[in-house]
Amino acid sequence: MDLDALLRCVGTTSCVVTQLTSGMIIGMLLFLIASGVTLIFGVLNVINFAHGSLYMIGAYAAWTFYQLTGSYFVSALGAAVAVGVLGVLFERVLMSKVYGSNVLMQLLVCYAVVLISDDLIKIIWGPVPLSMGMPPEFRLPPVRFMGGVIPPFYIFMILAAMAIGLLLWLVIGRTRFGSIVRAAAINGPMVSALGIRVNLYYAAVFGIGSALAGAAGALAAPVRSLTPGMGFSILIESFIVTVIGGMGSIVGAFAASIIIGLTRSFGSIGFPLFVDGVMFLIMALVLIFKPSGLFGRAHR
Amino acid sequence: MTSIEQRRASRRQLLKGAGAIAAAGLVGAPAISRAQTGAIKIGVPTILSGRVAILGQSSVGALKMSFDKVNAEGGINGRKIEMVVRDSKGAPQEAAKVTRDLINNDGCQIIIDAEASSAAFAVQEVIREVGVLCIHTNSETSSLTADPKLYVPTAFRTARQGIHDAIGGGDYAAKVAKAKGLKKWATCSPDYAYGRSNTAEFMEYAKHFDGNITVVEETWPKLFQPDYTEVVTKLLNAKADAMYSALWGGDLVAFIDQANLYALFEKQASFMVNLGDYGVVDQVKQFPQGVYSGGRYNRTVPPTPENEAWYLEYVKTQKSKPTNWSWENAVGAQFLIEALKKTNGDTNGKKLAEAIKGAKIKTPFGDGGTITMRAEDNTTINYIIGYGLSLSKEPYISDFKTSPWEPILELEKQWKKKQGYAT
Q1: Same structural domain for residues B95 and B155?
Q2: Could you tell me which chain B residue has the CA closest to the CA of A266?
Q3: Average pLDDT, stretch B393-418?
Q4: What is the mean pLDDT of chain A?
Q5: Numbered residues of chain A with Cβ closer than 8 Å to any chain B Cβ
Q6: pLDDT-above-70 percentage for chain B
Q7: Partner-chain contact A265 B230, CB within 8 Å
Q8: Which of A79, B230, B239, B349 gives 20 to 30 Å between its CA and that of B68?
Q9: By mean pLDDT, which of A51-65, A204-218, B67-81, B250-264 is the weakest?
Q10: What is the structure's pLDDT at B25?
Q11: Beta strands in B79-167 (DSSP E)
Q12: CATH label of the domain that carries residue B397
């Protein structure tokens, strides 16, 4: 523990600005992944344990599109769409068969997908880590703000994640599509009885959730090493976020992502050896005092 | 049952038992003789997946190149050398399991442990039990061979040793620090045995040679951590004059990519012991210029025709560039081949250990062209140690200064006493 260092940091504008943005960067990437997990759980009532693999595929897809097109924006968009389509296939071929099944069966199916996708990545792209490198448009000196340092790519990353989150919130909360999805989440058979093909909506939700993971992978690709299995560690953190925010709540995922991001950025100064411990501690406290999560409904 | 029947039964059991022992002997004897006449099987646990897979592959590449050459010349006493390579993923439990499997199931008579320190200690304990010859080719953590409590008579190391690098690097860093007034230092190294011990040793000797140096910040990212954002910002906030890092492989690549975003290398002098390795150089898209880089493997260090020839042969046969782990494995293979020649292909662990202990080999990677396997602690000395300045293009390192071995060995003796490893 180095609480003196933490207090010194909190008392310095430059340190606060740098650590706040650092926390937002970590949090926003987590938010994109966790919002997919929570969306799929909220509507389909299944926990997609293979979500980290979709993030990994998104990163590799972005890398490939970048090699082909040389445009990072096209690559990021292409990766999100490709992973979204893959998600729909995953849902139709595998996950739809285990809706309503024991959670262990769902876990088994997802784990199989994780192993298969890791091996496929090795076969297609090889076991050696890949690096996309920073696209030329972002190879700029970091921005100075109130003494703090913020890289331009991270500003883009935060804004892109926020924009995607806002769009998701509008689609689910303000459109007819969203109304049907919310209705199907509460009572699927009733929506089906009204003549709406609920299965299509389920597939679409799974596709959107997957596309969010793909977008997160594409945003991470310029700054992280691409390796088979890279989705595992981020999946654990995204589950922590989902539990803290409340299963099924996108607003909750947003809030919890920021909490975890800030815990990691300021924790690395104040309690560097116990950052993971604090994240799990926060999750445990939420589970004890508000088991449905900060913004979650009681589980149906 | 009468007592006679009981006796008969017991006699029958005795005969059965004797028959079984004889059968086992008949089956077992050819197995042993096969072990000394068939191919010499060498088990290689290493990391072939994840962030540092490239280093595991480059280890296997160097071993293959060495053994292919021996096999092309007819093998050892007519026996070919066969490698059995397994992926341990760098995990201690997996490495121990894989090593046992290689010996018990695959019939390997020798182990070349091409593991990082995270798993090498687990392999060492397996070797203690089974007694086969083992050469640790990649683990640099000093205690593996320096700590007498960990000593295993049939285990050797051909990797660099952290304390040697630390003394040579500390001396170099202190000279730069004095010249440029670098007093406040920060560190950023992976949070496991190698990272902790390497960093502590480097800073200890940097302070030993320049008393004005103080460490103002330490960061310990986890091994294979994907995101270094909070580590980089912590280093920025420390406002240190210089930074030392023992990050390596894919971790170092990810760290550099993320640190570049914050222009970290422009804000402070950086010393990175593992930077100048082709595995890193080829992966980093914006390779930082002017960073003080430790000698790992470079075709120009030492600038000899032998080193250049070895590099070209490696590139030609393995279709990739060698790494620090490549030369360490090439040296391990050479010690093993020389020992097998001395024992006429006998793979008995004790006999091979006797042949390797104190041996000296001619090699392109030695200071003065030779490397010695020091008998007192089964570790190599006289390999090239030093630091230079990174360049963003070939040869990627300039102004390389080789550290002399005499002061390293003298200070190592004192260090061993201080650690309680020697009296």
Answers
A1: yes
A2: B230
A3: 94
A4: 91
A5: 9, 12, 14-15, 18-19, 22-23, 25-26, 29, 122, 127-129, 131-134, 139, 141-142, 149, 151, 153-154, 220, 222-225, 227-230, 233-234, 264-265, 267-269, 272-273, 275
A6: 91
A7: yes
A8: B349
A9: B250-264
A10: 40
A11: 81-87, 110-113, 133-136, 155-157
A12: 3.40.50.2300
Identity (one letter) of the amino acid at B188?
C
Q: Would an 8 Å CB–CB cutoff place B230 in contact with chain A?
A: yes
Confidence at residue A117, expressed as pLDDT on a 0 to 100 scale: 95
Tell the burial category of B184 from Cβ atoms under 10 Å away from its Cβ (0-12, 13-18, 19+).
Answer: middle
Residues B289 and B400 in one domain: yes
pLDDT tier at B52, thresholds 50, 70, 90 = confident
What is the architecture of the domain spanning A3-130+148-289? Orthogonal Bundle (1.10)
User: Which chain A residue is nearest to residue B216, measuring alpha carbons?
Assistant: A5
Judged by DSSP in three states, B396 sits in coil
The pLDDT of residue B5 is 43
Q: Check pLDDT > 70 for residue B174.
A: yes
Tokens of B162: 């952290």
Instruction: Report residue A64's pLDDT band, with 50, 70 and 90 as the boundaries.
Output: very high
- pLDDT the model gives residue B393: 87
Instruction: Give A-chain residues touching B250 at CB under 8 angstroms.
Output: 129, 225, 227
- List, in sequence order, the alpha helices (H) in A70-175: 72-93, 103-125, 152-174
Instruction: Tell me: do B258 and B400 sit in the same domain.
Output: yes
The secondary element (H helix, E strand) that includes residue B5 is: helix B3-37
Task: Give the range of the structural domain holding residue B44, as residue numbers without chain letter.
Answer: 37-161+303-364+371-381
**Single-letter amino acid, residue A221:** A
Q: Which residues on B lie below 8 Å from A273 (Cβ)?
A: 220
**CA atoms of B142 and B201, how far apart (whole Å):** 9
Query: What would the two tokens of residue A285 be?
Result: 């406290």
Could you report the predicted ipTM of this complex, rounded to two decimals? 0.81
Residue B24 scores a pLDDT above 80: no
Instruction: Classify A59 in phi/psi space as left (phi over 0), alpha (psi -120 to 50) or beta.
Output: alpha
Amino acid, res. A245: G
The confidence band for A37, taking pLDDT boundaries of 50, 70 and 90, is very high
